[in-house]
Design brief:
single chain, alpha+beta, Beta-Lactamase, 2 domains, binds zinc ion
């Protein structure tokens, strides 16, 4: 413990101390701080060691890590909902699968500061349930990125940026999990585009209900 009260607790230690991964985002959506130990553990478990150093993340826009215009617009509406909301926070469940594991997570986004425009946002992401499953190439970021860049002839398959269900049957407007997609004979030779499914589109209204 130091004599100076203002550095009694270092913010990074605090972010590392809470359950899951916690980070602070400025009002302009720049990532300001992230718990370095919990982030490293997460990045290594997700086979993205290039991102394991949190210093490579801090200072970047949150939106660099959110793929798809529709998903980015969804997050912006989400921030607006939080700023309007009396409780100043929003909690919802989402999927964050790795290539060989299904992962159900819960994200809480809380406005920092009293009433008025938030001084920033605190994000906390906790893994609720993790289950090993056969590898799903659709969730291997490098492979899918290569497909987008090199194989423009492949059909586009929309992946919900929140629940990770796939828009497999546009005519029936059905959104299904990746495993079900393969069971129905769906092909991995696609280009993934990120969108938002009807179930996730107004998640903040479900949260308020
Ligand atoms: Zn969804």
């Amino acid at each position: 413990m130091t004599d100076a009260g203002d550095d009694l607790i270092d913010m990074l230690d605090l972010l590392d101390a809470v359950e899951g991964i916690a980070y602070v985002v400025a009002p302009d959506f720049t990532i300001r701080a992230i718990g370095p130990q919990s982030w490293r553990t997460f990045a290594e478990a997700n086979a993205t060691p290039a991102l394991a150093d949190s210093q490579g993340i801090v200072g970047k826009s949150l939106f660099e890590f959110i793929a798809g215009d529709e998903v980015q617009a969804w997050y912006r509406r989400c921030f607006d909902a939080i700023a309007r909301d009396e409780r100043r926070s929003l909690t919802f469940e989402y999927r964050c699968d790795g290539p060989d594991c299904a992962r159900e997570c819960r994200l809480s986004i809380s406005a920092i500061g009293g009433k008025g425009a938030p001084r920033g946002y605190l994000f906390q992401s906790v893994v609720l349930h993790e289950r090993v499953r056969p590898p799903v190439t659709l969730f291997e970021p490098e492979q899918m990125l290569a497909a987008v860049q090199a194989q423009a002839h492949l059909p586009i398959l929309t992946l919900c940026g929140i629940c990770q269900r796939l828009h497999a049957d546009k005519e029936a407007d059905s959104w299904i999990e990746a495993e079900e997609y393969y069971r129905r004979g769906g092909s991995g030779d696609v280009r993934i585009s990120h969108g938002i499914c009807p179930r996730c589109v107004d998640i903040w209204e479900q949260d308020a209900a």
